[in-house]
Amino acid sequence: MSENGPVHAEHTLEHLRKIGAHNADNLRTAADRLFAAVRADGLVFTAGAGHSLAGVMESFYRAGGLAAVRPLYHPDLLPLHGAVASTKTERRSGLAEEVLTAAGFRGGADALVVFSNSGVNPYPVELAKLARAAGSAVVAITSPAASAEAPKRAGTTLAEQAEIVLDTKVPGGDASYPTAAPVTAPLSSLANAFLWNMLLVQMYNQAAAAGIELPVWRSSNTIGGDEANAANLAHYGERVPGLR
């Protein structure tokens, strides 16, 4: 019998369960580093390129999401502004330094999370290297298996440069269906969102154990949501231009 949609859905759910279990220790460590930055009134910078920007979007100004997030963004990295151009931009050495400098990344006090499935292009790799050199915690949400199959355009990989790796276990090429010879149903965006949510759960639990309220967003489409978000907007608005 050939694989069908419901069967593949179970395979996908099993993949998420697998990466949750596989990354359990690193999720706790990563959440500890990120919570330490938030507790010290630092920011968690999030970055990605191409479709990994979906992970950045998930991390920023999202109902139930962490308020202390500063997304790193350059319009040329977004496929909607030019698909082929976005690929070329991610491969440009030096862009990471430009973006970090423009964003006011302080190092040390701030942490960095980088989403990149293959983790081999200069932009994500150089972000990790620069942030580590500045004394910041760097969390990579990436697939070392995909890195092993990709050309090393930066001479090293995101996984090798990060302090903590959350392994998505996504195969090279990202496709997941049909299982025997995948050509469609990319998996990395689901894995990225899932692991980011697990980080939020861990940070919430750490904050609760410390008797601290984690700064999170309420939905603006709920009664009292705008009022609940006002304090976060006032506190982080000056440091996070995207909130203005």
Structure description:
- With 244 residues, the protein is of the alpha/beta class.
- 47% of the residues lie in helices and 9% in strands.
- The protein is built from ten helices and five strands, in the order ααβαβααβαβααβαα.
- Helix 2 crosses helix 9.
Keywords:
244 residues, five-stranded parallel sheet, single chain, globular, Rossmann fold, 47% helix, 10 helices, 5 strands, alpha/beta
CATH superfamily caption: Glucose-6-phosphate isomerase like protein, domain 1
Number of domains: 1
Helix percentage range: 40-55%
| Topology-level CATH name | Rossmann fold
Supply the CATH architecture: 3-Layer(aba) Sandwich
The number of distinct β-strands equals 5
Tell me about the largest β-sheet. 5 strands, parallel
Give the count of helical stretches.
Answer: 10
* CATH C-level name: Alpha Beta
Mean pLDDT, as a whole number? 96
Radius of gyration over C-alpha positions, nearest whole angstrom: 18 Å
Task: Summarize the helix and strand pattern as letters.
Answer: HHEHEHHEHEHHEHH
Structural class by helix and strand composition:
alpha/beta
Q: Describe the global form.
A: globular
Range of strand content = 5-15%
Strand line-up of the largest beta sheet: 2-1-3-4-5
Give the terminus-to-terminus CA distance: 54 Å
Uncertain stretches of 5 or more adjacent residues: none
